[in-house]
Structures are given as structure tokens and as C-alpha cells.
From TrEMBL:
Its main location: mitochondrion. It is an enzyme of class 1 (oxidoreductase). InterPro entries: Ccp1-like (IPR044831), Haem_peroxidase (IPR002016), Haem_peroxidase_sf (IPR010255), Peroxidase_I (IPR002207), Peroxidases_AS (IPR019794), Peroxidases_heam-ligand_BS (IPR019793). GO terms for molecular function: cytochrome-c peroxidase activity; heme binding; metal ion binding. It is found in: Mitochondrion intermembrane space; Mitochondrion matrix. One of its GO terms (cellular component) is mitochondrial matrix. The lineage of its organism: Eukaryota, Fungi, Dikarya, Ascomycota, Pezizomycotina. It catalyses: 2 Fe(II)-[cytochrome c] + H2O2 + 2 H(+) = 2 Fe(III)-[cytochrome c] + 2 H2O. This is Peroxidase. Belongs to the peroxidase family. Cytochrome c peroxidase subfamily. It holds the Pfam family peroxidase. Keywords: Heme, Iron, Membrane, Metal-binding, Mitochondrion, Oxidoreductase, Peroxidase, Transit peptide, Transmembrane, Transmembrane helix.
Amino acid sequence: MASTSRVFTRALRTAAPSVRNAAPRTARFAAPQVFQQARRGYSTGGEEYKEKYPGNPKGMIYGAGALVATAAVYGVYLLNPELFGQQAKPKGPFVPKFEDYQKVYDAVAKRLADEDDYDDGSYGPVLVRLAWHASGTYDALTGTGGSNGATMRFAPEGDHGANAGLKAARDFLEPVKEQFPWITYSDLWILSGVCAIQEMQGPKIPYRPGRTDRDVSFCTPDGRLPDASKDRSHIRAIFGRMGFDDREMVALSGAHALGRCHTDRSGYDGPWTFSPTTLTNDYFKLLLEEKWQWKKWNGPKQYEDVKTKSLMMLPTDMEIIKDKTFRKHAERYAKDNEVFFREFSDAVAKLFELGVPFQTEEKWTFKSSFD
């Protein structure tokens, strides 16, 4: 483009004198004289055509033609960059599809594989906890809370005691948010929870996007998440407020197969299972098969296994096997991991969608790194 413009400019400069020196006449009479001179030049046959005027009007014409041709090619490039080996620019507003969300999933999965300097070598459990706590604030009666909003970004909710330590999960996801700025924090947090469960060899969790990020005015009051020191009535009150029945409550408790407690966060200490970065039905097996006793220490009341004293259970965990209805479901899950996976997947998918005004019924299942 630049070289053609220079040719055109030089042509104009060389042609300019003939315009200034030519006798005044109207354009109507000047044009035929040029054509007549041209015809006389061609009619000589052997004579080389000579310009009557100083300058170079033919150069001007050639330069103009080259400029027009180059402009035409550039116009084609702008409209169809893929013809020149470039990526086509999207037309209209960007509307992410399944493939775009799969790329986000893959980015989270890659970070889980690469960043192994967290508890037991994985950020997976804390990502599940982030998605769980972002969703578990839902109140079916008032329609407030839930996974729509990502209001834990703000101090009132982020500083709730139950959310202690979750800044690590939010910070972990910031590079992914920067890589995919179009995804909302709300959708990203839930998608990362789905990813973490599947990457820790858990079941497939159906997912659909549509969550929006809200401001600080939508922060929920403290006290909507479970208190580990309470009994079965508290479990039913908390989960019942969200719309879960006893079976779903026990299924969701199976998430305690993952991760561990920290004294500087919840006050409790230790993992629930021997494989805290792999989701299995071991949580239920250990609850039912191991012998448990109160741990003798200066922290809050918690249980430890008699045999190794390396595992822990919370008071709310023990309520699962003390209550007859709860225990019935715990026994089913302890006997059959597939049954646990199926019902856990259903309950988690329901949890992750609480409070979201979705615009579509379509749900997606992401490919994991194991597929």
C-alpha cells in the first residue's frame, strides 16, 4: 500500500507541470486533444510515441491503477482474512459455545495438573469447596443467594467464617479469568468445581452456563452454610432451606471424601479419608467400618479414628450414621460406588444451579483429561 502511494505521488508531481503550462481551456476541449495525440502516435507505425507535454500522464494513470488494485486486494483481506492465512474476525457480539467452555475446562484442568504445591498436591478439593459455598447460600423461600452472583468476591461474604481459606481458590482461578475474560466469575467458579470433581476421578457433572456477576448489595448474610459442630436438625434445616431431601443431603456429604480441615480456617484438623484428592465412596465406608473416638486436643470437638489417629470426622459427619434415615443412604453408598456417583452427580448438579435464572434447558458434559 505505501509503495503504491509513493508511485502515485511521483506521477502526480511529474504530471503537474503540464497542467500548469497548458493553455487555458475547458476540460471538454482538453480531453480530445490528448486522445488525438495518442492516435497520431499509434498511426506512425515505426515511430516511438512521444509525449507532447513535459511530465508523465501515463505514469499517473499506471500509478492510479496500481493504487486501485492494491486497495481492492486490501478490501478483500479485510472482508475475508482467512483467504490470506489469517484468522477470521468474529462478526457481531461473541456468543460462547460448548467448545469455548470446554477450553475453559481444559485450562483449569491444566492448572490443576501443573500447580501441585497445595494441600496433598492438589487445588482440586478447595475448588470444589468454592463452588459448594458459592451455591450453598441459596434460600428457596426468598429466592436469594445461590451460585448466581459470585458475591464472595466482596468482603462481607468473603470474610464469613465458613469461607475462610477460599481466597486461595479464587486466586488460583484468576489466570483463567484473564485468559477467558468473557466468562463470568459465577460460571467460572462452578465450572471449576465440575472440573475438579471430574479430574479427581469423580462422576460426570452436567453443566450449563448463564450465571451473572452481581455487586456487593447481593451478598448473603452469614450463617447460611453448615456449622460442623451441630446435629442432624441443623443439617436438615440448612439443606432443607435449599430444597434438598434426606437422600440428597447424605449424597452431598460424600464430598467430604475430598480435602482436609485446617486449624487456621475452620479450627478443625485433618483429612476424612486416606485419599483426599480422589473421590470415592470411602467416606461412607470409613464412617461405618472404622471405630471413632473424641480427639483429645485443645481444638474444637472432633473425632479421630481409633486405629491410626490420622483421620478425622466432624460432629455433623457422625450424625449421618446416628440418624436412621441418613444411615440407610450411607449404607447404600458404602456398598456401591456407582450408586453413590450417580446420586452424588444429580445432587451436585442441582446444588450448582440454585438461584440461577437460566435461559436454556440444554446441559453439557465436559471431557476430562482421562477421556
